[in-house]
Every structure is written in C-alpha cells, then in structure tokens.
Amino acid sequence: MKFLEYTPLDSLNDFLSRVNFGDRTIKGCLEAYSCKHTGTDKKLSLSLEHEILDYLGKSYDTDSSSPSDYLLSRSSRKTLIYLVLTLYHMYPDYDFSSVRAHQFFIEESWDSFKQIFDTYMFETSKEWVERNGGNSLLEDLYRALDEVVRLSECEIYSCNPDCDVDPFLEKGSIWSFNFFFYNRKLKRVVSFRFCCISNLVADGFLVDDECYNDDGEIFDDMDM
C-alpha cells in the first residue's frame, strides 16, 4: 500500500483538520492509498490470508455459526486484506487482526453514508458554505472522491471497532465514523474518518474515563 497525494483532497483536509464550535471540535481526514504492495505488505497479506483461512477452518471444525459469506470468496477476502493493510499504514504502531477486523467492517451504500454525514456534519457543512460559498461540503466531498476513486465503481465500507480497541478514538471523543471507498478496478482506496471531540475533555476540564457514545446525556442538546 502506498500513500497517494491528491490535490482535490487537500482543501477538504485543511478545512476538516479542526472546526471549532466552542465546546466541541469536528475533525476529519481523507487519505488515498494504492493497493499495490510495498515493503512488507506482501508478507503481511499472506499472513492475513492464512489467518482468515485458519479462522474459517476452526469455525467449521467447532460447528459454530457459519462465517460470513464474503469470507468464503477469495476476491472478497482480498478486499478485506486491502482494508486491513490500509489500517496498518494509517496506524503503523497498532496491531490489527484480520479475523477481528472482519467483524468491524460493514458494507455500506452512498445513501447510508450520506445519511450519516448529513446528520452528524450538519453544522460543519454550514461552516464550509460560510467560508467557501458555492457548493455544499457533501457536494465537494463527492466531487473529490469521484476524481480519486470513481464513486460509481466503488464499494463503500464503514469500520466500527469496539471502543476499547478503536485506534480512531481520540481523547474526549463524542462520536466517530470511519469509511473506506474502495475501487477494485483502480486498486485504490480512500479512507475518510471524521469525529467530534469534547473540548472540555481534550483541554482537561473533565475526566475522560470512558468512551462516549451518541446517546450521552450531556451531549443530547448538541447539534451533530
């Protein structure tokens, strides 16, 4: 996997690096990667493939619930491996397991992504228009993604790890989302993570002793 620099993503990343709303901050980041193996990727991908096959074998041997259908397909296992490799490159100090990862990745559609984005990035989208005018944040995001990975040809995945093993989770996180736009033909993937951080926790005014969730009472009146 090789990190790719794309100008269409730069202005979005500059804006999303920190959008401060006083008591909370919205942060986001888009990263593009080529799925061509580099460095230790080949060795790691083989290890992940064996790990998945071993998991499938044990699942059948123990007569447990049938594994997800996509794990039985080599092309789909390859997709999962690319997604896990992307995570490795995003967080090189974090140890990911492909077997655990398959439980976190969920296939999405543009409509399901749009619904989440419109709900949680509503205020941020208004700030984008106020600063830049013209198109909405979602429209400019769509245009940038389409230029990099051709959205009409993309498979879209969300990644939602458990709170205690979530590498995306930052101190004071109220909510976070992680999406991957994968073009099988181009062998290219774009990751998009965006989150909301409590400035009270991040600045040390409150103790962050547990993971926040979307239903946290103290944030019920906040616009997402």
TrEMBL record:
**Record keywords, A-Z:** Nucleus, Repressor, Transcription, Transcription regulation
A biological process term (GO) from this entry: negative regulation of transcription by RNA polymerase III
Q: Where in the cell is it found?
A: Nucleus
The Gene Ontology CC terms held by the record are: nucleus
Where does this protein chiefly localize? nucleus
Superkingdom field: Eukaryota
User: Which segment of the chain is annotated as a signal peptide?
Assistant: none
Care to name a GO molecular-function term for this sequence?
RNA polymerase III core binding
Family according to the record: Belongs to the MAF1 family.
List the protein's name: Repressor of RNA polymerase III transcription
Tell me what organism the protein belongs to: Geranium phaeum
**Gene name per UniProt:** TTR
